[in-house]
Amino acid sequence: MKKELLKKIIENKSKIPVLADESTSVGHKSTLIVFLKASVDGDMEPIAFPLDLVELDSMSAAHIKEQIMGCLLKNGFTVELLREILIGFCSDGASVMLGVKSGVGKLLQDDFPGIILWHCLNHRHCLNHINFLKSLALMADVLTELKNLSEILQNRKTTLPKAHDIMTTYVKRIESFNRYPGQHAVDASQAEEVMEFKGEELRVGRSPIIDSAQFIRAVADNMKERLFTTTANRAQASVAANRKEAYNSLINQMAVLNPDNWDHDNPRFGDNEVRALCDVLHVNQQEAHLGFTEYKASGGRNIPNQMKKLLMAVDTLSPSNADCEGVQHNEQHQN
Description:
The protein is of the alpha/beta class. The chain contains 15 helices and 7 strands. Strand 2 and strand 3 (47-55) form a beta hairpin. Helix 2 (61-74) crosses helix 5 (104-111), helix 8 runs antiparallel to helix 10 (212-227) and helix 12 (271-281) crosses helix 13 (285-297). It is elongated.
């Protein structure tokens, strides 16, 4: 199969990059696996396939480059043909492979000046670096909180006052990560102690690490900026301030309807807020005022009929349009 692929690649002079990765065999010997990627006949979609696996007697760039060239020549390529079809070399970012002055890629580039040297994106992500793992763990903990908050806010039974309380709670939960690490962060710390995560060896590396305090503060500030307002799209500072003021005013007005917030020493507590809320929600002020007075007199145990319209109007305000999005999603699937 490999011989047929190589024969067609050579006959069609298909462009090839060399992909190389160094590893250690069961016998603890350094090995190099060499792949090629090519469109076999010049028209087919390019495929990657293994060319050879060679043992390395030395980890010097010159020796590795010699082994790669040996693989290519042994499998039917010539130096003249490679000058025409070899377009790239891809490997991890180790200095022996992609060092600027004397890495394998540079040595190949000296012989084949047109080739593109490429640092493998998977290795570039530093997925096995402890700093990357710790940063990823922090982001995972924060995203978990945001996911849970989103699910609660999409619940059609979540009222606006309840949404405000829940949002306040989740902002505090995220801010608490500064003192009390989340589960993913704990797992990452435990992995750092043994320098292993889910069976994979971790490296120290030079990958940057997120400033956790700064990241958490930025997330919390952004939540406060975008959640605790009537409208969160971009606007002038004065408009944004008015929206926040309108939001806070509405929440404060609704808060007086909760018996837990009542000032029992003030017999007229909440009267102004109820009147303002009635204006906003187009509910009869006099009726609601009488109902609210009776409601307070009962200690919040009985809801008078005069209060029910106001409470129903408050509960009718929806903090989310998830129902609309759900319908659109279903219609798109049906169509």
